[in-house]
Specification:
Blueprint (H helix, E strand, L loop, with lengths): L1 E3 L2 E9 L10 E8 L8 H12 L7 E3 L7 H9 L20
Parallel strand pairs: 3-4
Antiparallel strand pairs: 1-2, 2-3
This protein binds coenzyme A.
Coenzyme A binds next to strand 3, helix 1 and helix 2.
Length: about 100
């Protein structure tokens, strides 16, 4: 977590989305920075730290699932060397049941 004046202004989390043991070192990364604290380098510091720690925790691969309209996040991840490797469909429905 990134904290400023006792307020959480950003967080980063890793989670296993694949249950087989063979994938244990491959995890999804999710990162969020509070709107009022964006573009101040907080996301950069969070990602830098997770990349530093990950190998020590047995993690060899990070991946992110990002909506194609989320251009900022795609740019952010590309800056860290993430590449687009897959396009997924029928992932998310809105409250009206629309894909
Ligand atoms: C993506 C996100 C985490 C970036 O956090 P941030 O603290 O604003 O990013 P930083 O200030 O550390 O910027 C690091 C780099 O990201 C890219 N970036 C960040 N904001 C950007 C913007 N508005 N437009 C273009 N590139 C941007 C730039 O390459 C930037 O490097 P630079 O400043 O040297 O150009 C933040 O925008 C966010 O929380 N988005 C909503 C949540 C989300 O989409 N999460 C990803 C899905 S899991």
């Amino acid at each position: 977590m990134a904290v400023e004046k006792d307020k959480v202004v950003g967080w980063i989390a890793l989670s296993h989305t694949l249950s087989r043991a063979t994938y244990s070192g491959s995890v999804e990364v999710r990162i969020y920075v509070d709107d009022s604290f964006k573009q101040k380098g907080i996301g950069y510091k969070l990602m830098q730290e997770i990349i530093r720690i990950a190998p020590k925790k047995g993690i060899w691969s990070l991946y992110a699932a990002i909506f194609s309209i989320n251009v900022v996040s795609i740019k952010f991840h590309e800056k860290w060397g993430f590449r687009k490797i897959r396009y997924r469909e029928r992932i998310d429905k809105d409250k009206f049941g629309k894909w």
